[in-house]
Amino acid sequence: MNGFLIAAPQSGGGKTTVSLAIMAAFARRGLTVAPFKCGPDFIDPGYHRLVTGSPSINLDGWMCGEEFVRQTFQSNVASHTGRTIAVIEGVMGLFDGIGASSRDGSSAQIAAVTGAPVVLVVNARGMAASAAALVTGFARFDPQVTLAGVIFNNIGSEHHADLLKEALAAHCPEIFCFGCIPRDESLVIPSRHLGLVTAEDNPLSDLFIGRLADMAERCLDLEQLSQLPIPPCPPLLKWGTILPPPFAKGGTGGISPVRIAVARDPAFCFMYEDNLRLLREAGAELVFFSPLGDASLPADIHGIYLPGGYPELYAAQLDKNGRMKESIRTAVEADMPVYAECGGFVYLTEGIDVSENQPGADFCGVFPVRCRMLPRRKALGYRQVELAEHAIIGVQGAVVRGHEFHYSEIGTMPEEVERCYRVSRQGAALGPEGYRVRNCLASYIHLHFGSNREIAPAFVDSCRRYSLPVSTICFCSRL
């Protein structure tokens, strides 16, 4: 296969803009782009999907382990048709992960695991020969990471570009320069408190995407980029062979399908594509719905998955959709398995207070607390969860990993609400979390089901064992 990983020496160097420009240019040339994102981020993959038309897959060595990353990468690339180019967007600086002496969680780890060569995007503003010194250090830092070439970003002039190329050729002749990109503030994607604006909130226009592709065609050697090879890896286990019975590959083995309703709209758009795939492989039929626009839950479902997102931006609209809130409350009261994380958890509280100037909104009221938005980030980072007791996603003692990132906080949760999680960060205990009301489990943590291959089957099995007479809950059609 051909492909590469786009990295940078630090955050804010232009990885996302350059990645999208290359993806857009390849797609316009008729190539099939298999997009990936290093790390736990949800926002960049949304833009990848928008530009390429294909779901973008998160690759995270700390959360999921290297074997799962390799499986995911190879299987996803193989699933595409036509001449396929794998483009992996990195995270932070190339060698930045969970610690100073470990590759875990870094772009470098993903490059080493997948074998993808690295294309380094260097913000060369204010640099000439120093840029070559920087590239030299990155090329020699880790022998398991192959630096194939560099793209110089934020170039001030043609003369500036010539100086950079001359310095690179003199000091790093083995490193190819794939091009130089001039400064252009009009191609910068807007940002806000949680990073980039989501693709759902800021759907890039065809004109903007076209301008990105034009820039890549004009400034980059796309032909050389498209021919970068990824060395073949040793054979891997097939999907499903590491799952315990009865959840082997091939679905439910004759058991009737399990329908799980998954919230997916601009307010709830943060979910790992692998979580959805693993639920399907465990026998689930996923039915998507919108808490913003639908009158109620889909019919004939056995469980609900409420992922994260930005419910605070749509608080008034979610508040007004009383029929949906009542439908979800009724499902919880009937003991339907419900799993919610971050924004989905917030939606299950009594409501949210966004700011002093904006009136509060009322939500589902499953959990007897309110949320409030904070001016500063409340939590950020990887989390490890151990189930303190049996739950709808696994048995007591099961360990699963995820990520936490939010600007809201909840009020004091009453003691009578069960805590099912023991949470830690790099070995340091953070206390109990994972709140449960009946069969509803909710948390601020985005769990990656690939970190424990028993989680998705356990949730599907909980939904399978759920039985509820249809007459006890009213399911309405879409508005």
The radius of gyration is 23 Å
The major β-sheet equals: 10 strands, mixed
Task: Assign a percent range to the helix content.
Answer: 25-40%
The number of helical runs is 14
Portion in strands = 25-35%
Please tell me the total number of domains.
2
Query: What would you call the shape?
Result: elongated
In whole angstroms, the N-to-C terminal distance is 45 Å
* Strand line-up of the largest beta sheet: 11-10-12-13-22-21-20-17-18-23
* Number of strand elements: 23
Q: Could you list the spans in which at least 5 consecutive residues all have pLDDT below 50?
A: 235-253, 468-479
List the helices and strands and how they pair.
Blueprint: E1 2-7, H1 15-28, E2 32-38, H2 43-52, E3 57-59, H3 61-64, H4 66-79, E4 84-89, H5 107-114, E5 118-123, H6 129-140, E6 147-155, H7 158-171, E7 176-182, E8 191-192, E9 195-196, H8 206-219, H9 222-226, E10 258-263, H10 273-281, E11 284-289, E12 303-306, H11 315-320, H12 322-333, E13 338-341, H13 343-347, E14 349-353, E15 361-362, E16 367-373, E17 379-387, E18 399-406, E19 408-410, E20 418-425, E21 428-437, E22 440-443, E23 446-447, H14 455-465
Parallel strand pairs: 1-4, 1-5, 2-3, 2-4, 5-6, 6-7, 10-11, 10-12, 12-13, 13-22, 14-16
Antiparallel strand pairs: 8-9, 14-15, 16-19, 17-18, 17-20, 18-23, 20-21, 21-22
Helix pairs in contact: 1-2, 1-8, 4-5, 6-7, 10-14
